[in-house]
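#data-curation
PF: Archiving a pair of folding outputs for the training set. Convention for this channel: one message per protein, sequence first, structure tokens after, nothing in between. First:
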Amino acid sequence: MSTLTKLNAISPIDGRYRNATEKLADYFSESALIKYRVLVEIEYFIALCELPLPQLKDFDKKQYPSLRNIYLNYSEADAQQIKDIEKTTNHDVKAVEYFIKEKLDALKIAEQKEFIHFGLTSQDINNTAIPYSVKDSMNECLLPMLEELISKLTALSNEWKDIPMLARTHGQPASPTRLGKEINVFVVRLQNQLKQLKEIPYSAKFGGATGNMNAHHVAYPKIDWLTFANNFVNNSLKLNRSYPTTQIEHYDNFAAFCDALKRINTILIDFNRDVWTYISMDYFKQKIKEGEIGSSAMPHKVNPIDFENSEGNLGIANALFEHLAAKLPISRLQRDLTDSTVLRNVGVPLAHSLIAYKSLLKGLDKLILNKESFEKDLENNWAVVAEAIQTVLRRESYPKPYEALKELTRTNAHITKESIATFIDGLNVSEAIKKELKQISPSNYTGI
């Protein structure tokens, strides 16, 4: 078998885009999943010692750091050792259990090693390890990138707040706006959705083979295992314990998490398409990096590739988020295995999202405002002040003002500053009103 490289990787996440996504390997690689499983098993054992179980009440707490070092000092060699054990067990979580027991043997605390994985099923480990890894990846990678993106858009919105711009509704010239305001629309949309995303708990299942703590209760019926499980998941792991459950987490909050990220990505697709269009309208130029090629055939072209790359990756991410949100909450009876293979792909839509966010930021850094193009577009569309004129005439109780402007704007091939002035001069209104109307132009009719 050849060594995996960027050139022979099947997925572009691990190939072409490895530089953009490499950090996510700390959360979603096979090795990372194993590490998070080890973490949960160790912290669970410590929690049993803290309870304490009768057989663990004399456990030396000075050993806690040594136990935690099993996952804190986790290495690729440890991962390989666990995979080697799995060749015999043919069970990935059981291999983790045996690995930890071997570590306990080495630490001379073998007497209590049967309390590793005590009373648990593999999903108690998977359904805590995976949300733990997702939470870490969001806090350390995805959320900072989204916040950086929002910060960048906020800065551009402020920088361009006074740039008048012809709006377009249905693709047609419409009442003018300001570029900064249009950027701010996306800022506020993203801020609102990010707030909702952050409010979704990272839910975890922890309750034995069918969610009832059966094994725990039959072994120690006098212990309040419900309180123990809540305390372990909510306080020790800083997750949110779902209760009641079957053998697996019901994934409803995870589905909400996927849907929330999908909405954020949809907003960014919308933004990418708008900026792409503005570039095609010559509202923006793009900085050229020496040596880069825009088109293999047309030397003059500088393609908006960063926005296109971002849009494409957001689309892939959303397709996967859609499947995760639709599939994971469904499981036959108390558990089937379809969630297991699907969950192994949880990092994939997050990786495509991360690629998209980085591409978008790169594209934004290349934008050069072409102010002359904005001004030219406004000057060529004096018809858009018709709304302003007819509204002022309504204020003055002028008869049928809308119809008068409709006649002007729809029968003249091209409305200019001069034709608007001529129209105003022909109105049966006071000179003060005519003067007021003539002050209105496409560049200052931008509202509030």
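PF: Second:
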Amino acid sequence: MVTCLDADVMVIGAGLAGSAAAWALTRRGAEVVVLEGRRVGHLEGSSHGSSRIFRRAYLKPEYVELTGQAQHLWSELAGEHGAPLLRRVGGIDHGPDRQIEQIKAAFDQFGVPSEMLSAAQAEQRWPGMTFAGEVLFHDEAGVINADETVRALLNCATTRGAQLREDAEVDYLEQFPDTVVAHTRDGQAHRARRVVVAAGAWESEILPVDIRDRLPATTVTQQQVFHFPLRHPEVAWPAFIHNAGNEVYGLPSGTDGGKTPAFKVAEHGRGTPTTARTRDFRVDDASRRRITDYVTRWLPGLFPEIVAETTCLYTITDDRDFVLDRVGGIVVASPCSGHGAKFTPLIGELLADLALTDKPGSARFALHPRRLAR
């Protein structure tokens, strides 16, 4: 029996979810070791960049409620970090396939302030944006800097004693009755009572077969994002989601767009299937053309000239729900499907609950067979 422990809890992966888990665990007094297979802030996963949407607009009421809990925790994290990490810019939803009436009903259910605008009213409020049909606006939406958030979470966690080990890529896990051992590719064995696996697109490579077989159907895709310069930077635009057959989103670029004020615009659901190890990092020409055409049609307040572009990974479950569950001493964390960033500090708390208690998590986010059928 292995008895020499590195920590109470080991966290595998120092992206948004893993860093949030480390933060939440150390807030509760746990001894934590974080293993990151690369260097913190690397560009190979799903947690880099200066521009992610925080929004409360969901068709599923449960998610609207969760965004409220996350919003509170973003404020707590900012207080500990000493600077805001969520910048409010407001958010709009529009398009015939966006189902904004249902989103508005969910807002009303949880007391989220919102308003419906006509296309003409919206175009007057946000010059340079074009609309067709009604527009739903809520002012609690904003922008998250993923790079800064990861640094803040890890700084807070390490200040409270967490250990961070970079270039420690985990090859496989062994689970014993009271211990989990993480074997890294350099031949080291790291031991803890419980392990949180927050490895994103690498998740299935690390998990034991019996747990891997309980994962919901999941697809890894390579997405691409584009940044366009603003014609009139003095006009403050909100983040948006527009669904008229092809879901497109946009938000202020931050530093990802370069030195000139820019806006990030991308497709949400048309990535190329890949794996963490076989992706090619090449921006898809067809997506580039579609988004440039979109900008020309719907966002005349942008110059239709790309100033920056990049790729990232989505890890997408068929039902678009997260995976947050525990089997024995292994906590599985896959807050995926391209909408997990906004929940970062809340996901950390949910993972800490799973790692430090024996209470079951939500059936919505469970592994099979407990996962709710959709």
